[in-house]
Amino acid sequence: MNYYLKFLWIAVFCGILCMLGYSAGKDKFFVSEIISLFGMYGTSYFVQYLPDITHLFVPLLLFQMFFGTYIYHHFCSASIYFFSRYPKRNKWFFTETLKLYLFGCIYLLLMLISGTLTCNLFSKIVIDRKMWKLLFFYICIYSLYLFVSTFAMNLLSILFNSNVAFIIVEGINSFFIAAFTIVGNFFAPEGVILPQYEWTIKINPFYYLIFSMHNNNTDYFISILLFFSMAVLLFICSYFVINKHDFIDSNRETGGV
């Protein structure tokens, strides 16, 4: 675990970089506004927003890069998998899964704190009542998203290898981001997507990360439910992976033992 603690400093660095461009030249910042910016509130389903989306997605990508093998690396050492020798693999796996989720929460909180402090260097920071609600929704939605993506990488690493797992997960991420950003150019001739084409964005998981797409609390809870359901499904799949997969005979990183 100590090895991965140092990667949390990346969250601080990302929080600073993400907010530098927004904080310059502004007299006052509400904390709720900062949280919304991290929630990609200033973006929409048009291709011209792709640079902004990419800018804010990079911190999430970095977390996936460094924690995508958090569980996997424990049982892939010297060509012998950890689970092949651990008697209570289900209990251990659940504990490590919980740690992975907590790492995501801490990562997001550190990024928010460093981003807020960065804004405070250039502007007056105002703590408003709305921030608590947005903080709750942001941590819930984005921590579940980070958990789903990194947990999927860990499981795919077990089945294939870490390189293949990263390519698959980030390939899916890239596809959904691209699909989201081009919808408006085809189906929103007046700046708002036509009602009959709303399904094209609502079937896209990335849509549920964008705070500007949320009009009320119900929309936020739908996003939480979606990513929570994905997490539960992956956790169920993981039971079969860790209990049925022959780890010793399928060392994907080293080509077998």
What attributes characterize this protein structure?
mainly alpha, 257 residues, single chain, 2% strand, globular, 9 helices
What does the radius of gyration come to?
20 Å
Spatial sequence of strands, sheet with the most strands: 1-2
Given helix and strand content, the structural type is mainly alpha
Residue fraction in strands: under 5%
Q: Counting H and I runs of at least 4 residues, what is the number of helices?
A: 9
* Largest sheet geometry: 2 strands, parallel
Q: Which shape, going by the Cα principal axes?
A: globular
**Overall mean pLDDT:** 88
Contiguous runs where pLDDT drops below 50 for at least 5 residues? none
Number of DSSP strands?
2
| Share of helix, binned | 55-70%
Helix/strand order, N-terminal first? HHEHHHEHHHH
Distance between the termini: 27 Å
Question: How would you describe the overall organization of this protein?
Answer:
With 257 residues, the chain is mainly α. The chain has helices at 2-5, 9-23, 31-38, 50-67, 89-122, 130-159, 162-187, 199-202, 217-244, and strands at 28-30, 124-126. The longest helix is centred in the middle third of the chain and has 34 residues, at 89-122. The two termini are 27 Å apart.
